């Protein structure tokens, strides 16, 4: 059963991991990271790849944000907002799952 309610935004203490139905990897022919799944492929932009790469079930959202703020210095608030938005989209698409 799928919950049709609007999901709550990720909490800083939550941890996310890739849904096991997807395979995340660098694809040289695409010159980008991709998500492979039985029905196809999703080509990711650099930012999406950087975020999903860190969704390992070990890092909290706060740790993920801090790492990406170091990688993309200059506007910490914008980076944090972007990460939270990406996580919401990834979760809605079923690419990532919240870890216990």
Description:
By secondary structure, this protein is an alpha+beta fold. Helices cover 37% and strands 28% of the residues. It has three helices and six strands. The chain has helices spanning 46-53, 61-71, 76-93; strands at residues 15-18, 23-27, 32-37, 40-43, 56-60, 96-99. A three-stranded antiparallel β-sheet has the order 5-1-6. A three-stranded antiparallel β-sheet has the order 2-3-4, with helices on one face.
Secondary structure topology:
Layout: E1 15-18, E2 23-27, E3 32-37, E4 40-43, H1 46-53, E5 56-60, H2 61-71, H3 76-93, E6 96-99
Antiparallel strand pairs: 1-5, 1-6, 2-3, 3-4
Helix pairs in contact: 2-3
Strand content: 25-35%
Tell me the series of helices and strands, N- to C-terminal: EEEEHEHHE
Helix content: 25-40%
Largest sheet: 3 strands, antiparallel
Could you tell me how far the N terminus lies from the C terminus, measured between alpha carbons in angstroms?
Answer: 20 Å
Strand order of the largest sheet: 5-1-6
Low-confidence stretches: none
